Amino acid sequence: MTSQATIAANRRNAARSTGPRTAEGKTRSSRNAFQHGLSLPLPIDDGLAAQIEELAEQYLTMTGCSREAARLAATEQVGLLRIQQARVAAINSSIQEGSSGTGVSLIGERGVSLAIADTLPTLVAFDRYERRALSQCKEAFRRLEASDDPRFDNELATEGVRLSYRLFRCTLSRVRKPGGDWREKRRKVIAGMARLARKYIVYDRAEAAIGYLDRILPVAPDDLLLHAVRTCAQMVIGHPDARNHLLRYCGQWADGVRWEEMILNQLHQLRKAPRMRRQIISDVAAMLGCEPRQ
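Predicted structure:
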């Protein structure tokens, strides 16, 4: 059993080891584990903001897309360039440190090889960040191209017609074969329609998603999933009736999922939509009395 003298000594030692006390010291110690900051969102300062706006204007001129889509593509492009520049800076820093530490110049192929070998763990991390940034950049440019491509609208319209026909067939099966597997087929069709509506929203066509769901819901008026996607589209574009639609189905369940959780799940899946904001999820969670998903 620990004696009282030992406990008192531990308390005295702990009182002398409380870490930095000044604001400057706390700020410095908070960056002890900081390496390159590439896992953090892109910090937008005045210089980067100007660069992003310049790129966005070029994309607007070339494609005639929406400003939100152009700004998103420009931001992802700048983020990818930041990672590539950080990789080059890490290799150059390793070359300079090796030259100053050994007194031997590391210029040339052999020097670059030694520098890369020294910084290999860091470069592996850079490769992971670059793959993620490249994927996000490709997605942003797909949205940019789709915003002014009539073939994209035709593709979505064709998929919507196909799903509508399948939903109609499920309705007929419900009448002709009440004991059949129409429920499972209908559930899959509804899930496909929800994915299509989310695709509209992600490609900055929330109004088109609402119009599409308005045409579908008379056939499936009681389906909470389609109502959830429609309400999320309203929340994304700031529709004035979004709050009323959000609270309309509170407390209801569908396929074992509560309406509140369904809404938050749909918003989480739409987190990459151009006009989607983290604050939307927090506001919706507060209105529904739920914890926002991380």
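Summary: Residues 150-288 form one domain.
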